[in-house]
């Protein structure tokens, strides 16, 4: 069975920089034999978490009057997740934060109800984050790192890899970057061919044309 990989774009812009990187990563997934699904949060209507705590008893969000149930089903069904977000005011995008907050039900499923989310692969579920920023601030991605670390944890996913690209502010500027799209493609392929996550996430940071790998 092919590895099921969901790519989620949270940019308000279709064909924005993080969205283009995500699409390149998914091309890498497909080339490695993975089954690709793509969701753009801008195409969905997802309201904010209402902090009702009903999910503490069920592991599901009680509010089903928007598109969140569709997102929930995909998140629990896949083997791999690639989540892409631009940096807005040193944080994930507003669409990303709303969607992540609604996943409080998955946190409850994991930590309150102690219910496992099964994986079809022996190495378990893995996550990758892609993020883009528009300046040379060396702490541009600090908030994204922490937010995604805890998000993947709630999803019972191990954080496998990250791709952070700075100094790409204009729409589509990533197309002119000499290596970013190729890095996304490579990491997407690795997400399929890797059986289990490393002890710490493989992290690639691109500041202009400078590459930092951790």
> Percent of residues in helical segments?
25-40%
Taken in chain order, the helices and strands follow as: EHEHHEHHEHEHEE
Q: How do the strands of the widest beta sheet line up side by side?
A: 2-1-3-4-5-6-7
CATH architecture: 3-Layer(aba) Sandwich
Query: What gap, in angstroms, lies between the N and C termini?
Result: 31 Å
Spell out the CATH superfamily: Flavodoxin domain
Major sheet size, sense and barrel closure: 7 strands, mixed
Highest CATH level, the class: Alpha Beta
Percentage beta strand: 15-25%
- Low-pLDDT runs of 5+ residues are none
Average the pLDDT over all residues and give the rounded result. 93
User: Regarding quaternary structure, how should these chains be classified?
Assistant: single chain
CATH topology: Rossmann fold
Total domain units: 1
Radius of gyration (CA) equals 16 Å
What does this structure look like?
This protein has a 7-stranded mixed beta sheet, sandwiched between helices. The longest helix is centred in the first third of the chain and has 15 residues, at 17-31. It is α/β, with parallel strands linked by helices and 214 residues long. β1, α1 and β2 form a beta-alpha-beta unit. The chain has one domain: Rossmann fold (3-Layer(aba) Sandwich), CATH 3.40.50. The model has no long low-confidence stretch (mean pLDDT 93). It is built from 7 helices and 7 strands; from the N terminus they run βαβααβααβαβαββ.
Gist of the model:
By secondary structure, this protein is α/β, with parallel strands linked by helices. Helices cover 34% and strands 22% of the residues. It has helices spanning 17-31, 55-58, 68-77, 94-102, 104-111, 142-154, 180-193; strands at residues 4-9, 35-40, 80-86, 125-132, 157-166, 202-207, 210-213.
């Amino acid at each position: 069975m092919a590895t099921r990989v969901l790519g989620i774009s949270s940019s308000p812009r279709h064909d924005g920089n993080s969205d283009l990187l995500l699409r390149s990563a998914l091309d890498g997934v497909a080339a490695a034999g993975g089954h690709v699904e793509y969701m753009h949060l801008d195409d969905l209507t997802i309201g904010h978490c209402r902090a009702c705590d009903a999910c503490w008893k069920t592991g599901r969000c009680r509010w089903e009057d928007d598109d969140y149930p569709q997102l929930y089903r995909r998140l629990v069904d896949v083997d791999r997740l690639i989540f892409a977000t631009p940096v807005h005011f040193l944080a994930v995008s507003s669409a990303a934060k709303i969607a992540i907050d609604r996943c409080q039900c998955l946190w409850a499923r994991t930590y309150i109800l102690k219910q496992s989310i099964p994986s079809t692969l022996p190495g378990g579920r893995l996550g990758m984050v892609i993020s883009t920023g528009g300046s040379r601030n060396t702490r541009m991605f600090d908030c994204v790192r922490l937010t995604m670390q805890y998000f993947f944890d709630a999803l019972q996913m191990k954080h496998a890899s990250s791709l952070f690209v700075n100094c790409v502010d204009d729409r589509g500027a990533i197309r002119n970057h000499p290596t970013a799209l190729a890095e996304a493609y490579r990491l997407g392929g690795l997400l399929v061919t890797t059986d289990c996550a490393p002890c710490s996430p493989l992290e690639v940071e691109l500041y202009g044309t400078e590459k930092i790998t951790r």
